[in-house]
Recover the amino acids of this structure.
């Protein structure tokens, strides 16, 4: 099927109003994307990030009369439309294109992340077969790769591991395949827990070794030998007392989702509960790891 897409150049004050107006006139979908190659990182707590130059796109069936649609859009918007253009969008198999672009990825000496629909590059390595589904975590993002590289370098065999903010379950499942004995995956998104269970089955994980829980379902008296948390700096700061309490004395912690500009603040925050803290960077992201102080 062929579609028409109406692209409008917006700023932060008009993007949401244009989005609402497009939905009012019957757009099948509306998206917002960066229109000036401006990176957006973690916003301050309580703020919603919007690009200074935002492209708002409404998707319409190919037989839509755009000449009559534009005045209707302006009426709902309440003012003259910003610069805009109409383009034809040919239908494509977007899922297949994404699958073709997702290649096996080596994370350390012996750990690989392999899409479930591809053959492993090294069958003798530790291969995590992954289908991200509805949850974040494919191994390609620097924060995930940093955590996986760290896991590959640790003595994980026989350990109890907590993956806090598990997403697709990629980190915890890698820990089990590297020899961990028990995994507790925690996420506030039920879809993430569903994706984690599916990926665990895909990797033939013994279901008695893994628990998938919402935060309120977790027993805070349980402590782990290893705690993994690849989330964001804001939640890591807020959760510091809780995450610290979930690690046994002399246990290990691995944190990421942290921009390099936020690393020192996180080091100071977790320095009260952990020793030998180290910071490792990849691109503009960092990983923090350390050992729980007795």
């Amino acid at each position: 099927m062929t579609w028409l897409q109406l692209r409008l150049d917006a700023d932060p004050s008009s993007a949401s109003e244009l989005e609402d107006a497009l939905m009012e006139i019957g757009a099948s979908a509306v998206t917002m994307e960066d229109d000036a190659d401006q990176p957006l990182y973690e916003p301050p707590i309580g703020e919603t990030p919007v690009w200074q130059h935002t492209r708002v796109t409404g998707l319409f069936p190919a037989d839509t009369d755009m000449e009559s649609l534009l005045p209707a859009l302006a009426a709902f918007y309440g003012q003259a439309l910003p610069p805009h253009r109409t383009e034809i969008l040919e239908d494509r198999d977007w899922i297949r294109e994404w699958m073709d672009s997702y290649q096996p990825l080596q994370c350390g000496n012996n750990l690989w992340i392999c899409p479930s629909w591809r053959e492993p590059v090294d069958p003798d390595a530790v291969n995590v077969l992954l289908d991200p589904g509805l949850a974040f975590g494919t191994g390609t993002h620097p924060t995930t790769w940093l955590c996986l590289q760290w896991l590959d370098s640790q003595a994980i065999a026989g350990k109890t591991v907590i993956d806090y903010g598990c997403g697709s379950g990629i980190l915890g499942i890698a820990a089990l395949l590297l020899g961990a004995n028990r995994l507790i995956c925690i996420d506030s998104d039920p879809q993430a827990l569903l994706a984690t269970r599916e990926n665990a089955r895909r990797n033939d994980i013994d279901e008695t070794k893994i628990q998938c829980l919402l935060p309120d379902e977790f027993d805070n008296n349980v402590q782990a030998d290893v705690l993994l948390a690849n989330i964001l700096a804001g939640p890591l700061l807020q959760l510091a007392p809780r995450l610290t309490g979930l690690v046994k004395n002399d246990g290990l912690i691995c944190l990421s989702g942290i921009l390099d500009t936020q690393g020192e603040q996180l080091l100071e925050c977790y320095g009260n509960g952990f020793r030998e803290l180290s910071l490792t960077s990849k691109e503009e992201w960092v990983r923090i790891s350390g050992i729980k102080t007795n």
